[in-house]
Amino acid sequence: MKIHLPSLGIGVGVVISAVVILMLVYGQGSLMRTSPTETSTTQSEQTTSQKVGLDLITGNASPVLGSENAPITMVEFGDYQCYYCNNFFHNTESDIVKNYIDMGKVKMYFKDFTIIGQDSVSAANAAHCAQEQGKFWEYHDILYTNWSGENTGWASTTNLLQFAKQLGLNQDKFNQCMTLSKYLPTVRGSVSDANNLGLTGTPDFFIIGQDNSVTKVVGAQPYAVFDEIFKSKLQS
User: Fold this and answer.
1) For residues 76 and 205, is the Cβ–Cβ distance under 8 A?
2) Three-state SS for 230?
3) 189 and 78 belong to one structural domain
4) For residue 153, with 0-12 CB atoms within 10 Å meaning exposed, 13-18 middle and 19 or more buried, which class applies?
5) 34 and 42 Cβ atoms separated by less than 8 Å
6) Are the C-beta atoms of residues 233 and 72 closer than 8 Å to each other?
7) If pLDDT is split at 50, 70 and 90, which confidence band does 16 have?
8) What is the β-pairing status of strands 72-78 and 14-16?
């Protein structure tokens, strides 16, 4: 059973540098001293490990929010039922969008880490179904706008269909996608990525710089935390 750590009320954020993240991805072996004859092989293995690590962060994700050419990438691992994910959406995300995403400095992806209940899985699938009609982020927003607690029924199938109607989505296409649970493999893939990255709660964020340096932010931290990281990466 996953421990929904941020929803237990962790008050102090944890920001982990790229070195720590890459240690988690590579394992200790990549940090060992090698002889000259081993150098070429070790560098190749490290390059492969880095690619695998970044794929875990960016694979099975939503469509991009912002410019594809933005120098900084931010990935949120979240659960639509999560109290602290909802808190981040209402209190922090809009400032990031206004000051960094809309300005072409940051692009954002959302990944599913459905650890609260079945409605979390259904909501995640529904957002990807909305993606088929070009409205992933609109559906993402309407989910958090209608958030009403964890496992309270607000993300029932009936309500998910109603949200699609409110957004003007083609009902037949959306309903078929929902009935087939078409994006369940994508959701499960994202959860697997989160597990492989060692995540234990939501929300968690990975911020990737132009040099592929990775900074992890745990929990619904205030805007100032993200602002500082973005500024640092833009200067590097």
Assistant:
1) yes
2) helix
3) yes
4) exposed
5) yes
6) yes
7) very low
8) unpaired
Burial 96-133 (b: 16+ CB within 10 A, else e): bbeebbeeebbbbbbbbbbbbeebbbbbbbbbbbbbbb
Same domain membership, residue 165 and residue 124: yes
Q: Cα separation of 39 and 8, whole Å?
A: 45
Structure tokens at 22: 């890459």
d(CA 152, CA 201): 19
- What average pLDDT does range 213-223 have in this prediction? 97
Contacts of 118 (CB under 8 A, 6+ apart): none
- The one-letter amino acid code at 134 reads G
Instruction: Quote the tokens at residue 19.
Output: 């070195």
Length of the chain: 236
- The string of pLDDT tens digits covering residues 119-160 is 999 999 999 999 999 999 999 999 999 999 999 999 999 999
The predicted model scores a pTM of 0.81
* CB-based burial label for 189 (10 Å; 0-12, 13-18, 19+): middle
Range of the domain at 21: 13-52
Long-range contacts, 230-233 (Cβ 8 Å, 24+): 230/72, 230/100, 230/105, 230/106, 233/71, 233/72, 233/207, 233/209
Residues 42 and 73 in one domain: no
DSSP-derived 3-state class of residue 167:
coil
Of residues 43 and 223, which shows the higher confidence score? Answer: 223
Residue with tokens 């990466």: 233
pLDDT of residue 51: 57
pLDDT digits (tens, 9 = 90+) for 25-50: 322 222 222 222 333 333 334 444 45
Three-class SS of residue 15?
strand
CATH number at residue 130: 3.40.30.10
